[in-house]
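Colleagues,

Please find the record for the two-part complex below.
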Amino acid sequence: DVKVTQSSRYLVKRTGEKVFLECVQDMDHENMFWYRQDPGLGLRLIYFSYDVKMKEKGDIPEGYSVSREKKERFSLILESASTNQTSMYLCASSLVSGGYEQYFGPGTRLTVT
Amino acid sequence: KNEVEQSPQNLTAQEGEFITINCSYSVGISALHWLQQHPGGGIVSLFMLSSGKKKHGRLIATINIQEKHSSLHITASHPRDSAVYICAVNKGGSEKLVFGKGTKLTVNP
């Protein structure tokens, strides 16, 4: 079974802090994704990576950056956290030849105070 | 207008009822997905469809490409089916998903 893990289930940070969210997948998937999920807005794509060191902006990249130094690991970075970044963050991965199915991690609920 | 629309937004049913959740999309797609999210956050893929119908246990998913519409049916619903059900599509040949806002299903015993 594919496993996607995220570094924390719950995280509380202060405004202005630098925040790292880590995602690791164990199935050699080429594609990895970071989403945020907010009530009434659904899931929105922040960044997408299709290979090591390759990234593409999603729908809402402002205030975020990403890093993919190894195939299995995709990090989301909030350079200076703000209260409007309080949200549920979900990571997913997929295989290029896998017919588009994405496998999701358990999510990190981030609160910025 | 959102490219993927789901209805209803909220649905309450009694245990044993037949449930239908609808999804309409306005773009060309290469695949449509039905996802399930239980309280607590984790999302599980239920179905991926590009045509026809798929069945898994009590769950059935159908898609009509000409009408740009898909339905998720749950037969003999059970309280453990209570979750948010999300429809998502791959636009064209994109690896990225476009999501509906989800349908919150509550099944009462």
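Chain A has a mean pLDDT of 93.

Comments are welcome before we finalize the supplementary table.
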